Amino acid sequence: MDTRFRLDGKVAVVTGANGLLGRHHVTALEAAGATVIAVDIDVDVTSESSLEELRSSILSTYGRLDIIVNNAAVNDMVENPVSILEASRFENSSVELFRRVLDVNVTGVYLCCRILGSILAEQGSGSIINIGSTYGTVAPNQSLYINEQGEQTFFKSAVYPVSKGAVRMLTRFLASYWGHRGVRVNTLSPGGVANNQPDWFYEQYAKSTPLRRMAEANDYEGALVFLASDASAYLTGHDLVVDGGYTIW
Ligand SMILES: NC(=O)c1ccc[n+]([C@@H]2O[C@H](COP(=O)([O-])OP(=O)(O)OC[C@H]3O[C@@H](n4cnc5c(N)ncnc54)[C@H](O)[C@@H]3O)[C@@H](O)[C@H]2O)c1
Predict the structure, then answer these.
(1) From ligand 1's centre to the CA of 47, what distance in Å?
(2) Least C-beta-crowded within 10 Å: which of 89, 95, 157, 188?
(3) Distance 243 CA to ligand 1 centre (A)
(4) Where are the domains of the chain?
(5) Cross-sheet strand order for the sheet of 67-70
(6) What is the per-residue pLDDT across 134-190, written as a single tens digit (0 to 9) for each?
(7) How many C-beta neighbours within 10 Å does residue 218 have?
(8) Best residue among 71, 103, 224 to mutate for probing ligand 1, ranked by most atoms within 8 Å of CB
C-alpha cells in the first residue's frame, strides 16, 4: 500500500510556491519522490503568455507533467489585511479589488488548468489539485474579527469566498470533462493557518474548531500527497476539506 503514496518519476508544478503553504506543498511532493517545478510571481498565473512559456519549458525539459497544484491566490487576512477596517466593509469595498482577486484566484486556476492541464489530458494521466478554502463552503463568520475590546477590526471580503466557491465548481467541471482522459481533478480546502495572528483571534478561531486549534502550515502535506498519488486513484471531483472540523457545526 505504501508505494501507492509514492511519486517517484512524477513531474509536478506548484504555483504560489513561495507562500506560506506553497513551500510545504513543494517539500511534501519532493519527499514523496516527485520532481517539482516551483513557480511564484515569476510566472503570472493571470497571463496566458507567461503560462505558455512555462508549458514549453516543461515539455522541452521533462517531456511530461503529472501533477499540478493550483495554489497561487490573493487572500485578505486579519494578520495582513488588504484593506483597513472601513475599506474592508462590503458597502465600501473596491470593485477593482474584486476583479483582481477573481482574476488571480479563478481565472488563474482556469488558465493553469487549460494551458498546463492539457499536457496531462494529452498524455492520458495526471492529477490536478486546486487549492480551495473552507470559505468555498461556508461564509466568513465576521464576529471572529471582533477583538477583546468588542471592536470589529476587519471584515473578510465577499470576493475571497466567491472565488473559492468558483474553484470548487471548476474542479467539478474539469473532473467531469477530463475523467475519460485519465486526469483526476480535486479540490483541497484548507482551514485557517496559524501565522502570527493576534492571540484573541487565534483563541476565537480555535473555539470555533472541533480540534481546538488553527492549522499548522504543514498540516496539509499528507492530504496533498494523497490527492497527487495513486492512493487516491478512484477519487475525482472531490473537495477534501482539511479544517480541524471548522465546517461541520
Ligand atoms: N493561509 C490560510 O489560512 C489559508 C486558508 C485556506 C486556504 N488558503 C489557500 O491556500 C493557498 C496558499 O495560501 P497561503 O496562505 O500560502 O498564501 P500566500 O499569500 O502566503 O501565498 C500565495 C502565493 O501566491 C503568489 N501569487 C499571488 N498572485 C500571483 C500571480 N498572479 N501569479 C503567480 N503567483 C501569485 C504570491 O506571490 C504568494 O507567494 C491559497 O490558495 C489560499 O487561498 C490559505
Answers:
(1) 17
(2) 95
(3) 17
(4) 2-242
(5) 35-38, 11-14, 67-70, 126-131, 183-190, 239-242
(6) 999 999 999 999 999 999 999 999 999 999 999 999 999 999 999 999 999 999 999
(7) 13
(8) 71
